Amino acid sequence: MDAARDPDIIVLYNSIRENPQYLEVPNEMKFVETPLHIAAFEGRTTLALEILRLKPTLGKKLNFDGHTPLDLALCNGHPTTMKRLVRQDPDLIRVPGRGGITPLHYAAKTDENIDLLIDFFSYAPPQLRT
């Protein structure tokens, strides 16, 4: 219930009340800046989780720079947001962004990301764990 009192969540639902299409993005639009991209970029974890819960397809959309919301959380120093998004939708680690790079590729790239890789695999779909 704490999330219901979160100012970000209240603003989100007020925005939806004013414009019921607020989170709607046509499926054919591959590149779009969504409220989920903004929340992930800013590390607003509770808001990002609520948006992803309401509209799971937004987690797989690329912004105009070719980044997913998970990419933005990852590259802007918001590990809590990133981990919670992955926990809510483990398939996000395999969504290719700019250059075809997935968050899983990014985590596997260097030894300094070993904790990230462990987190990804702990929430990964079963087919990735075998």
UniProtKB/TrEMBL annotation:
Pfam families reported in the protein's UniProt record: Ank_2
InterPro entries membership: Ankyrin_rpt (IPR002110), Ankyrin_rpt-contain_sf (IPR036770)
Domain of life the protein comes from: Eukaryota
Name by which UniProt lists this protein: Ankyrin repeat-containing BDA1-like
Organism: Olea europaea subsp. europaea
